Amino acid sequence: MGMVLGWMLRRFSNIAVGAGAPSSVQVVEVEVDTWLGHVRVLNVHTGIAVGRIAAPALARSQAAGAVIQGIGYALYEGREVDPASGDILTGGLEDYRIPGIADTPLIDVHFDEGGFDHVPGGSVGIGEVATVPTSPAVANAIRNAIGVRPHELPIRPDRLIAMLNARSAA
Amino acid sequence: MSATATTTAGERQSEFRAAGTDLSERRRSGVSRGPLIDLAASPATTGIGWGADGAARIGAFTSIAAIAADSRIAQAYPGLAAAAAGLATPQIRHLATLGGNLAQRSRCWYFRDPHIACLKKGGSTCPARDGNHLYGVAFDLGPCVAPHPSTLAAALLAYAATVTTDRRRALTIGQMLGDGSNGSADHALEPGEIIESVDLAAPVANERALYKRAISRSHAEWPLVEVIVRAVVSGGSFKLVRVTAGGIAPVPLRLLAVESAAESKATTAATIANAVAQSTVGAKPLAMTGYKLDLLKGLVRELLERVAG
After folding, report:
1. Between chain A and chain B, how many beta carbons pairs sit less than 8 Å apart?
2. Which of B105, B239, B251, B256 could covalently link to B232 via disulfide, CB atoms 3.0 to 4.6 Å apart?
3. Contact A137/A43 with Cβ under 8 angstroms?
């Protein structure tokens, strides 16, 4: 299947399947208020390897936006439903929360531009690869801070309190 | 924001509109569909006035931002100023009024859903009670499980403020909002009754106050729990302690057991720990709201420690 897909991509498009894998790594620093179950993300370092950056300002902006989106995914965005009817209860931005400016950390962006010489243009898309590591990195940082690993997103105050109570009981 | 207005047989319930910050959202969603009555500002409902003894009267049309920015309010009633500064967003605070904040409608997901009936929309049951009540009450005092949304009501309760309407004078916050046993209303005002102003007694000498809310984000979120602590601390002991909380019950609550555990006691860690343990006296959490009691204890502890220090 993969071989067929690879052959089709090579035959019918400009995209080549090669050895370079788009990748990103993030280092996240958080502060956890264990009395109020509140998490604040202080610093994020994001390193992204998608080849040569064609539009540095846009790419940088996308990488920073991806971190902010990932923080929302990690800490705030929750699709709550009514168990009886299945109605979505968090159907607007009043209730389905995304990060505000005060929730935005200092973001350091680094691009590793090598490794994609086999691709026309020398680079691939930055899209999803920039936001994928944020939520696990936030969860890992919380684990590092309080010693309990979150298994559910978003990591809201009610879930943090439950994790901390389970830690105390253990 | 709005208050419930006159209802006559066969007529859709009409609503008052002051700034309309929340009402416009409910009009758009279809939750509010009756006729509107625009309130006009008058001398009785505007401005902040001061008595010779240092007592304040705040007109119901005063914006939240004006309360938060008033230096004399901040000096005399720092808990009220901090609560005003801590609620909603700058845009909302700029428009929204004191009266509208006190008379605002519930934030419950089910109330806000135009497709679901609930006690506050003429329904016969509370669908959140057996449904998703993640942000519901932790002191289950009535048939509706939504906490009262007014941050300023919780702050004004700490100051034992009274409310003047176009019909009655000197209503306590408790008299204006009721005790939570009526699940169909957000307040105990009569149909068509309009809030005109709020009176606060002169501050006690050397009193301090703090306000804090527990939320997910840094700002701009309805409080999971919010606490106001007023205190006079001198000679290493609590002389006066007033503690009120919002977000936990159908009405803002005064935490009397915390107050009596701290008042006239030395400001030691043991006193504070004992007072914090009293925060949950009378609590009846729902299946999903037990965490609010932890947040309540955390807030009471933090504010008592800070006000003592």
Report:
1. 83
2. B239
3. no
**Each residue of B58-115: pLDDT tens digit?**
999 999 999 999 999 999 999 999 999 999 999 999 999 999 999 999 999 999 999 9
Closest CA of chain A from B127, distance in Å: 9
What is chain A's mean pLDDT, rounded?
91
DSSP letter assigned to residue B172: E
Assess contact for B103 and B3: CB atoms under 8 A: yes
* Catalytic positions of A, written as ranges: 128
Structure tokens at A125: 């898309």
Does ipTM come in above 0.90? Answer: yes
Q: Which residues contact A57 (CB under 8 A, 6 or more apart)?
A: none
Spell out the residues 6+ positions from residue B286 whose beta carbon is closer than 8 angstroms to its own: B129, B133, B136, B137, B138, B140, B145
**Separation CA B29–CA B12 (nearest Å):** 17
Across the strands, what pairs with B227? Answer: B212, B245
The DSSP letter of residue A121 is: G
DSSP H/E element including B303: helix B291-308
| CB half-sphere exposure, B221, CA atoms < 13 A | 26
The residue length of chain B stands at 309
Contact criterion met (CB below 8 Å) for B177 and B153: yes
Per-residue confidence (pLDDT) for residue A107, from 0 to 100: 98
- Is B217's CB within 8 Å of A80's CB? no
pLDDT 10s digits, B237-291:
999 999 999 999 999 999 999 999 999 999 999 999 999 999 999 999 999 999 9
What's the Cα-to-Cα distance from B242 to each of B154, B207, B209, B306, rounded to whole Å?
11, 10, 9, 14
What gap in Å lies between CA B85 and CA B226, rounded to an integer? 13
Buried b (16+ CB within 10 A) or exposed e, A27-47: ebbbebeebbbbbbbeebbbb
Q: Which residues of B touch A (CB under 8 A)?
A: 25, 109-110, 112-113, 115-116, 127, 130-132, 134, 214-221, 224, 288, 291, 294-295, 297-299, 301-302
What DSSP character marks residue B124? S
Residue A62 is encoded by which pair of tokens?
Answer: 């996308």
Measured between CB atoms, does A86 come within 8 Å of chain B? no
